[in-house]
## 1
Amino acid sequence: MVSMYCNRLYANKPELAASRIDAIGYQVGHQLSERYTMERPRFTDHLDAIKFICKDFWSELFKKQIDNLKTNHRGTFVLQDNRFRWVSRMSLDPSENGDLSQENAEAAENKAVQEPNMHLHFSCGVIKGALHNLGIACAVSADPSQLPALSAANILFVILPKVG
């Protein structure tokens, strides 16, 4: 799905593709959060909701918990996944890179960075949608510290709850 938005529908408009992919992720996260919390009481504070995301929600999606959760105790949370599955084994389609001239090599390198970033937009949308369903309006961003060298895929997700 992400590849279709990047390569076909919005090939020349990466910002629009990122926005649309984030919105789809938001819907997915909102619905999954609704499903996974159906039998639970509402969370009383932000920290309980974030812990739910790190343990239960993440386990349902990735069959593992978040590796590390940090906070500055002023509302900002940082979730660290040391082997983020959605980008850790990503590769490009070699048929798209048949001619490896200098221009094509640069284009392939740009694509090698852009495609995982688009998957991270989807992931940020999923987290944002799940938290919004739990009563936390927030902004979510991803810091791909090892892209495009994705063998380890150490990703930091930064959550900034919106005030007011």
## 2
Amino acid sequence: MTTGLYPVRWWLAGLRAVLARPFAFLCLGLVAFSLAGCGAFGAKKPPPTEIEIKPAPVDASLDVIAVASPLVNPGPDGLPQPVVMRLYQLNGETAFANASFRQLWEADAETLGPTMLGKTELYFAPGEVQRVKANLIEGTTIIAVVVGFRNFEEAKWRAMVGLQGDKKFKLKAELKTLSIELGPQD
């Protein structure tokens, strides 16, 4: 008596398998399209927008918050050490961008020549925060920083940002373990 039901069970099992495959593919397709829409498959980033660098207007001000990491500038024992940061007002980027660390650190005035309009030197203990408020020198188009990391060969020791002609220019300099990042204040 049960032998008569066996073909029906087999047929129902086969029908379920046939119906389950398209459903599984449909679910898989929906998940794939959802992830693609969210950019999970490496959506192309838009090309960087070009920023027109404009000189600082007369009476423009500069406000820089500089934050040194508690782990900044590790010494041979791995302990953080004090570090020096130089903040430059420049009217061109080429000399700064092409100079070596030693050229900028040992002879910045000669290396940068007439592109250097002003310089401020700051000393940081690990974890220290400092704020610099100054007037931008007329003709300044670039704010640049150099950090005197002990191990400068392995560090990102330089950063720069172009001005866009604003009356107030607010920057944040982050001195990390062996790198400097320069960007807008939060």
## 3
Amino acid sequence: MNEEVDHHVPVLIVGGSLVGLSASLFLGRLGIPHMLVEKHAGTSKHPRGRGNNVRTMELFRVAGAEQAIRKAASTLADNHGILQTSSLTDDEGEWLFKEIDPGGGLARFSPSGWCLCSQNDLEPVLLKSARGLGGDIRFSTEMLSFDQDAEGVTALMKNRDTGAHTTVRAEYLIAADGPRSPVRERLGIRQTGPGDLFHNVSITFNSRALADAVGDRRFICCYLTNPEADGALLPVDNVEKWVFHAPWHPEQGETLEDFTDERCVSHIRRAVGDLDMDVEITGRAPWHAAERVAERYASERVFLAGDSAHEMSPTGAFGSNTGIQDAHNLAWKLAAVLNGWAGPGLLQSYEAERLPVAQATSARASARSAEHSHPGYAPAPGAGGGGGGRQGGVLKVALGYRYPRGAVIGADPAGPVVPEQMAMAGEPGSRAPHMWLLRSGARTSTLDLYERSFVLLSGAAEDAWHRAATSVAERLAVSLDSYRIGKDPHAELVPRTARTGPNSTARRRGARCWCGPTGMWRGGPRARWPNRRRRCTRSWPPCWTWPEGSHTPPAAGARRAPPWWRARRAR
């Protein structure tokens, strides 16, 4: 490889689809310079990957992109539910579920909500936001090879328009380069799982007559179950533009060339139930669903994220959401290491936290695919459902997952990643509960507090903890925000209402919790402590102990930091 380096960056992102662009956005928000390279000429042109769950929208909210995304998605804002029918013209069909958020109950749990925004609409928003934060994003640029050493990664790039080669040196590399990831293959990281589930051809077409057949049934997706011509229909604008997923059987010798315009038109008409309906084919693209998870998420200074790390059934829209959440988890940890307030050992927690989530989520996605009898997918005998109701199961995965291991103190390492009951009670390793507060008179969610720093939440009367935390953070050069919640004049945050419920966990007076920049609880209070001592829990660096009520940090030798932290502090 050419030893002359043309560019030096802290982080190199390979792959500029949803996950890569999200990683760029999150790193940009944290002030980390980076370069993103994508071999294609621009963002996606095909409407796909449209379901953005609540947790993903919470992350985009904190990153400042939520409103722009919702504006881009406004055309489908009133589409909800999954319909199944043998014909759109002769059968009202059966709603597998009619509302994403029946009764509006989701507002109890989150300041955000689901968003139906297709990839071709979402990617330009992420691109604009990421570039606005200084992201160096280069399309038509392919990474040809890379090598890594103890200090970083050296990658060789090719501009596909000009043929020019450049060499980039980065401290870390994020591989968001898709399910066939050349980076993963280069690292020799194997995948586990059943493999391919089914193949489809995604057909985009125009038809005004179809809107009449659909009527007021504003669905996200309609499974058409005509045995002679089945498939899945998705609206693009509810008026003229549509997408149809037709089963494809390459194992039987079918090729993409077999899907001529004539065949596609005939298949769509028969599936809908109108043999005279106007249909204009505008595009087609093959795709497959699979269940695979990488055995490892990292190799020294290279990290997998998104489809390079995991593939899963599209049912439930878990795939891209899990990938975006990978990127968020990794971004703040890279920022902590690069900014000097954590050692490289923190990066080991990325795999420890995100790999089990992908395994559990992938299994849930396949179970839901079996429930929904997705066209082309024959579930294994005895395959079970997701549990807890169709939408309850999705919400349980989106908001209820936990990190039993990783950068967490107090979590049960033997506990399930996705519990059967979504308690939302703030256990260590779980997502922090949402509660509306007033901050300088303006309404804010507890989730809005978690982005750039660790956060200590305490009662308004807990001034000793507030001062102690601030002092320790200054001594350790750690990024920390400390907030007192209450009606006391010294409190930074005031509860907007006195109501408690699933979104505002009631705790005894004086409870204190630590939360990481991801909005996941990294430690919290315990019911009893011996010798009237309390523990102020932080995952990275380690927790300290001192007598209750004392605001004096412990002596330097009271509790030793692990070697990776001491090494970072010595630099």
## 4
Amino acid sequence: MKQKFLSLLVLALTLGGCVVPPERTTSRSQNLYFQVAIGNSENVRNLLQRGYNPDLPEDTYDRMTPLMVASKEGHDEVVRVLLAFRANPNAKSRNGHTALMMAAYNRYPKVVKLLLDAGADPNIQSDAGHTALSEILLTEKEEIVHLLEEKGAK
């Protein structure tokens, strides 16, 4: 009986280590991606202070990081918070897009500037060969073109 109990205890302790990362919880108030997507910078800051990983990609097909989601949505305050917690501005999604490419394509100059100032590389190429500059040239927004060229984008 004692041996059976010990075996069950070992199994329970082993399985106990297989938990879902907190960033992927189903509770909306505790889900980092949900809070980023709705632009709640205060909740994002609180979750990051509790140890959530700012670079953990979504568990979806695109594999976007929280910084990519915030950049794509134009949530400049959330971008600022994520960068303060050392989110990687050069991380790539499944298809090689970066937060900078997403902000440029969606025409968010404040976010583009924040990312460039944080060290985002304007010359990284996606799997399709696109850069942040080629993304914005598709939408012809001069302000972002100027910001990218100022930082040496080609």
